[in-house]
Amino acid sequence: MQSLAFQRCFNHAAREAVARCPECKQYFCRECITEHDDRVLCAACLAKLARKPPIQRRAFLQLWRLAQCALGLLIAWYFFFLIGESLLKLPDSFHEGTLWHVNWVDGK
Prior knowledge:
Blueprint: E1 19-20, E2 27-28, E3 33-36, E4 39-42, H1 43-51, H2 55-88, H3 103-106
């Protein structure tokens, strides 16, 4: 295999290649490549990537967000359920007496 220094552009045979497209494995000059998502791609491969609909990924992300929201609501409901259960377990004597009555407010 020859090194990059001896390669020529796939589209322009007279020009020296400066990069290799990771998708199609062809060599290209500076005018034939572009950077996309931190990768150097040729125009043909970039067009192929642009045509692929990311619908499946979006559907998965929407489903994942819905599951996260449902889990968050379930955790919040369970938290308040436990607080209610603990308040119901308090004895009635806890509420009687002077705990809720302040003498200076009642006038006694």
